[in-house]
Design brief:
heterotrimer; A alpha+beta (about 290); B alpha+beta (about 400); C alpha+beta (about 400); A: about 290 residues; alpha+beta; Ribosomal Protein S5, domain 2; 5-stranded mixed β-sheet; B: about 400 residues; OB fold (Dihydrolipoamide Acetyltransferase, E2P); 4-stranded mixed β-sheet; 9 helices; NA-bd_OB-fold (chain B); rRNA processing (chain B); RNA-binding (chain B); RNA binding (chain B)
Chain lengths: ~290, ~400, ~400
């Protein structure tokens, strides 16, 4: 979506040169490797009630890959339930609206102020994930806004050119968005059937000539030679139900096992995140 | 095969009815006669007062200079001409004869010699009611008329009335005072009723109602003050084009009837709203609730009891056989519409019987209710062949 | 154009639809079998001004047109590190080919826009549709390689997907099939220049090569020597939903309104690893056994969650005997209490919007149904083979 409201620069763009490290250094840091076991997610910090003026809010931070890069930092605020404007038609349910926005400085390439297609797409995914968890008919004729700012996206400083990696990073961002929004909804006192948390699993090809593809949870794309496929799951642990599934990649259809395993691992990652979420909510109460 | 992909057709045949009409007009009186009235595609627009092309022409010849129609490019050559086609287009002069009054679908324009000409403002067929000339459009949205039976969907609930989508240019209104309140047919409406207006009809609910009166702007006021009107359940809804199109639902003798279905489907109610909204449902005999049975029964009480289910949104138990036949009838109506045939009791019944027979010989057996694509065309062909 | 756009159906209709679709076998409102698609009319090459185009319409008048336009664009290069570009990136399958011309693509080379009448182009639903379609197209990373001309230039492909009619149902399958056909019919002018010089093309349109070369047309496939992927095809995205124990394909708007879960599954067909010469015969023989790849799966937020619930007769104050005692406030209060407590209980014939999500097993079954050998995806691709590409 072009930014039509502001004066933009000329169309012909050039890319500023990026200076690489000296070759010998490069070989050391170019490929960070995964230090966690394949089925362990990164540590995360979650806190609710960070924005007093909002009905509910939460902040989520996921530790960085320890490679001089930045982790994921998300802030979510929930406004509502509140009355809908007069012009909207009657709704027997609560009307959910989700906004996901990367801060302009959150990624390597600066983002505009208008939401771009990726952000809108994330918003739609988030809405699907949350709508399954809230009990919408408890709040007829009302609306709730869920606003997430991604203060800092995951970026690895050393990767001088990260083509194709950003696409996989959005999955990590989405899973964070789901977890933080769920915490904020609970903080706002909106009825939910269960807490929903996001989890990502990926089929990765590690560096090395003969390494077979393996499935890892909570992948950091920069740590792997290549990501073959990934999926992001929003899961309700006590109901054992999936509210949102997003799979992307290239897998042979004849081999459904890999796909099934990916989904299972995604659910596992989501369960791990959910434990943090529940602990955080308990802490707030206690 | 789950998917059928067809190549595009070279060209689409014009709907039969129009084709025939123009044939009739252009050909001489020698063309064989009866068919124009019994066309299956039917001149769906003429409900009595439309002049058939043939009749109109005879009228024109007997009463002298009735219609003056000139090609727009040509000079004024003759004041009496036979209409070349049954269809007039916007801007086409219908007559300059001052004895006619202008009706819907026309306007007055000043002709060259200072005389007023009645000119068409629509593409449609000229109709005459006494001295009133009007043009019925070939295709238009539903225009409500008092007494029409319509199926509508509640789109808005206001303090004392509902707003109902009837496929017209305006939302129709259904006042709280125009419904039968539960618990006594002649009960006065109270404030409580106003407060719980949504318990009678809520957004999305379907109602069958009658047009009670019309506003100046064409908006309709509905009422459901009869036991045959009210909330719809136990069936499926479909919207086809209403009166005014070449196909679709036409005003006819009966808009509502019960069809005895094949394959143990039991009786099925079909409601063809004049506005083109169709409801097909299981026929349910009014059930008298247990509590009411114990009370004394009288005529008013019976009505009370029957109206009890009027605002229910709970479906009765429906057998799979019935559902299958309902789907078949729905398929018949879709096939009729897609093939440009009119939808009325006669066509639906015949189409349904034909569809049942078709299913018997199809590989899916009588349980196969699919009537889309080629099968719909087959069905339409069988119907037109039989009726022609 | 959100899938969850406001569907106004009455609770009684929803209950009926849900009941009939939950039967075994399900009875769909239009009588189709669970895996049957609506019949459609398809043609390609309708727009002479484009590199490729297609049009598909349903019997109900829903119609989509896709036009593909290609422009030559200078490839933005990073002058600094040509070695890094090719060596360390590792984005290509064939690293050993890096020594000379490495054919590689960039996702920026494809621009896809979806236009739905009555919806803004930045509407969340429209963006979602376009993200889904482009995601499937770019998933394997092979597609953009087809747009490579030389190290300095590439084709920029504009895919404009237009829905002509207002969306009478969720248009995803329609748009996907139309895009598929348009891409199959897309041709790019034949390159006359060599190496990295400024590209020069053959004026003869008849000599233009297909973007997706076809096995049957030997003439075409010989000219496109740069990629040996004769049976590869653009992806197809199918919409599949589950109601009760039934899996239903190509749901109409009404059917989607009672879905327990809906999935969009994108399926591609990859190049067969065997030699391209034997391909012609092989495809004939193995018809219906496509070498399918699963490219993308997304849950579609089913609009069923936003439908109005029905009220059981037992707690309906306007129903029968209850209504007779409407003035009896005590009784009414009691009923309301009952209604609260009975909230979670399902009553037969009363619609209740689904809550929560879908069981993982159901989701797996949906994907399995699409992809299994001789399954729906196979048959859809077979049927698409039958479309005349001109």
């Amino acid at each position: 979506m072009a930014d039509r409201r502001r004066i933009n620069g000329p169309v012909g763009t050039t890319i500023a040169p990026i200076y690489d490290d000296a070759p010998e250094q490069k070989s050391q840091v170019a490929m960070a490797t995964r230090s966690r076991p394949a089925n362990v997610i990164r540590k995360m910090y979650l806190k609710t009630g960070v924005t007093p003026s909002a009905s509910g809010s939460a902040y989520l931070e996921i530790e960085s890959s320890g490679n001089g890069g930045s982790g994921l930092k998300l802030s979510c605020s929930v406004h509502g339930p509140r009355a809908l404007p007069r012009s909207t038609p009657f709704s027997p349910h609560i009307i959910l609206s989700t906004h996901v926005k990367f801060a302009p400085f959150a990624t390597k390439q600066r983002r505009g102020y208008l939401r771009d297609p990726i952000e809108r797409d994330l918003g739609t995914h988030l809405e699907a994930a949350l709508r399954g968890s809230i009990i919408a008919d408890r709040w007829p004729k009302s609306g709730v806004d869920i606003i997430i700012s991604i203060v800092e996206g995951e970026q690895d400083r050393e990767i001088s050119k990260a083509q194709g990696i950003e696409a996989w990073d959005t999955m990590n961002a989405l899973s964070g968005c789901i977890t933080v929004a769920s915490a904020a909804l609970a903080d706002a006192g909106i009825d939910c059937v269960d807490t929903v948390a996001g989890g990502v699993a990926a089929l990765v090809q590690d560096a090395g000539d003969d390494a077979a593809p393996s499935i890892v949870v909570d992948p950091i794309p920069a740590e792997h030679e290549k990501v073959l496929a990934a999926c992001c799951i929003a899961y309700l642990p006590t109901r054992q139900e999936v509210t949102n599934l997003w799979f992307k990649g290239d897998l042979p259809a004849s081999d459904m096992d890999v796909y099934t395993q990916l989904v299972e691992k995604g659910i596992q990652a989501s369960k791990s995140a959910n434990r943090v979420l529940v602990d955080c909510l308990n802490e707030t109460v206690g | 095969m789950p998917i059928t992909i067809l190549p595009p057709k070279a060209f689409r045949e014009p709907p039969r009815n129009l084709h025939h009409d123009s044939d009739d007009v252009m050909s001489d009186a020698s063309s064989d006669s009866e068919d124009s009235d019994s066309q299956p595609g039917g001149v769906s627009l003429d409900s009595g007062e439309t002049i058939h092309p043939r009749k109109r022409r005879s009228a024109a010849t007997t009463s002298g200079s009735t219609f003056t129609k000139r090609p727009k490019t040509a000079n004024i050559t003759s004041s009496i001409s036979v209409p070349r086609s049954a269809i007039v287009t916007p801007g086409e002069r219908i007559t300059t004869d001052p004895q006619w009054m202008r009706g819907h679908g026309t306007y007055l324009s000043s002709a060259t010699l200072g005389e007023q000409a009645i000119t068409s403002s629509l593409a449609g067929i000229v109709t005459r009611t006494n001295k009133l000339l009007s043009v019925r459009p070939l295709r238009a949205r539903y225009t409500p008329e008092v007494g029409d039976l319509v199926v509508g969907r509640i789109v808005e609930v206001q303090a004392k009335r509902w707003r109902v989508d009837v496929g017209s240019t305006q939302l129709a209104a259904l006042p709280l005072s125009a419904i039968n309140l539960p618990g006594g047919i002649l009960r006065k409406r109270t404030e409580t009723d106003e407060l719980q207006i949504r318990t009678f009809f809520a957004e999305g609910d379907l109602v069958v109602a009658e047009v009670q009166q019309l506003f100046q702007d064409g908006g309709a006021v509905l009422h459901t003050r009869s036991l045959k009107y009210g909330k719809l359940r136990n069936g499926v809804f479909m919207a086809v084009s209403g009166t005014g199109g070449g196909s679709g639902v036409v005003r006819s003798r009966r808009q509502v009837w019960t069809l005895e279905s094949a394959n143990n489907g039991g009786p099925i109610d079909v409601i063809l709203g004049v506005n083109g909204y169709v409801w097909i449902s299981k026929h349910v005999d009014p059930v008298i609730p247990e509590e009411a049975k114990n009370q004394q029964t009288g005529i008013t009480n019976l009505e009370e009891v029957v109206s009890a289910t009027m605002y229910s949104s709970q479906n009765d138990r429906i057998e799979p056989e019935t559902m299958r036949e309902i789907a078949r009838i729905r398929g018949v109506v879709t096939a009729l519409v897609e093939n440009g045939l009119r939808v009325d009791e006669d066509m639906v019944t015949k189409g349904y019987n034909e569809a049942v027979e078709m299913a018997l010989v199809s590989e899916g057996g009588p349980e196969d209710v699919y009537l889309g694509g080629e099968r719909g065309e087959q069905l339409a062909a069988a119907l037109t062949g039989r009726l022609a | 154009m959100a899938s969850s756009q406001h569907v106004l159906l009455s609770p009684a209709e929803l209950a009926y639809l849900h009941a009939s679709l939950s039967l075994t076998p399900p009875i769909r409102p239009d009588g189709r079998s669970p895996t049957q698609f609506r019949p459609l009319v398809a043609e390609t090459g309708i727009l002479p001004g484009t590199n490729g185009s297609a049009r598909i319409c349903f019997a109900d008048g829903t119609e989509a047109i896709v036009g593909v336009k290609a422009e030559v664009e200078r490839t933005r290069t990073r002058h600094d590190f040509p070695s890094l570009d090719e060596g360390a990136e590792g984005d290509d399958d064939d690293l050993e080919d890096n020594q000379h011309d490495v054919v590689k693509g960039d996702n920026d080379w494809v621009e896809m826009t979806v236009e739905i009448p009555g919806y803004r182009d930045d509407d969340a639903g429209t963006v979602f549709l376009s993200a889904m379609l482009s995601e499937a197209l770019l998933a394997d990373g092979e597609f953009t390689k087809r747009l490579w001309i030389n190290r300095r230039f590439h084709w920029k492909l504009y895919l404009d997907i237009l829905l002509i009619s207002p969306p009478l149902s969720y248009p995803l399958p329609l748009l996907s099939l139309t895009t598929h056909l348009a891409l199959l019919a897309t041709r790019l002018p034949r390159l006359k220049s060599e190496g990295d010089e400024d590209p020069l093309f053959d004026d003869d349109w008849a000599a233009a090569a297909y973007l997706y070369p076809r096995p049957a047309a030997k003439k075409g496939s010989k000219k496109t020597t740069s990629f040996a992927t004769p049976t590869a095809r653009p992806p197809v995205t199918l919409l599949v939903m589950a109601v009760g124990n039934n899996i239903i394909f190509d749901p109409s708007k009404e059917e989607l309104a009672v879905a327990d879960v809906a999935l969009a599954v994108s399926v591609g067909e990859s190049s067969n690893p065997s030699s391209s010469t034997a391909m012609d015969i092989e495809t004939e023989e193995t018809k219906g056994h496509h070498n399918l790849r699963i490219l993308s799966v997304r849950t579609i937020d089913p609009p069923s969650r936003l439908t109005p619930p029905g009220i059981p007769n037992a707690s309906n104050s306007a129903y029968g005997a209850n209504a007779a005692g409407a003035k009896d406030t005590e009784k009414k209060k009691q009923q309301q209490e009952q209604a609260r407590t009975a909230e979670s209980e399902a009553v037969e014939g009363v619609w209740k919007a689904p809550r929560g999500g879908a069981k993982p097993l159901v989701l797996a079954a949906l994907v399995q149904k699409v992809l299994e050998k001789g399954g729906v995806a196979d048959e859809v691709l077979d049927a698409l083979d039958g479309v005349d590409l001109n």
